[in-house]
Amino acid sequence: MPRKKKPPLTFVEQMQKLVAANLDGNKPISSRNTLIDDNPIDSLDTRVKKILGLTTQTQKTAGNMLFFVMYDIESNKVRRLVAKYLLNKGCSRIQHSIFLADTPIDTYNSIKDDLAQVQAAYDNNDSIIVLPVTTDYLRMMKIIGKNIEVDVITHSRNTLFF
Asked: Of 55, 123, 129, 137, which residue is the least packed, with the fewest Cβ within 10 Å?
């Protein structure tokens, strides 16, 4: 008789299994140049276009919430699972440890609650920040370090004619 397939584990159940497997034995990252997880981030241009797409939408979906998720997690396993979880929930990766999402409020609450359970699941010095933002604040974003004219793309630069 064939075996029944087990239903997939939820994110919180995966984290509980990691805790049960002695998560404390993980070494923190020694340098920022090491591979953070299996999902490489998109190019800066692609990431900026995703952000600008959210700011230039003419019609917003009612009941959606725009928010950032930022984390500083020592354990490679936990960090990798959190990144995959956020990507599966529809978040866009902005930097290695920063995600931006425009999701229904129910999804926002689910993400916030699941991340709180992960944080409480084991002894750590990690921090996770979930920050709601408005489209107006997102439009005021400035990118420092790369030569991308966000002001021109978002049409926020004022021009005076004499």
From this structure: 123
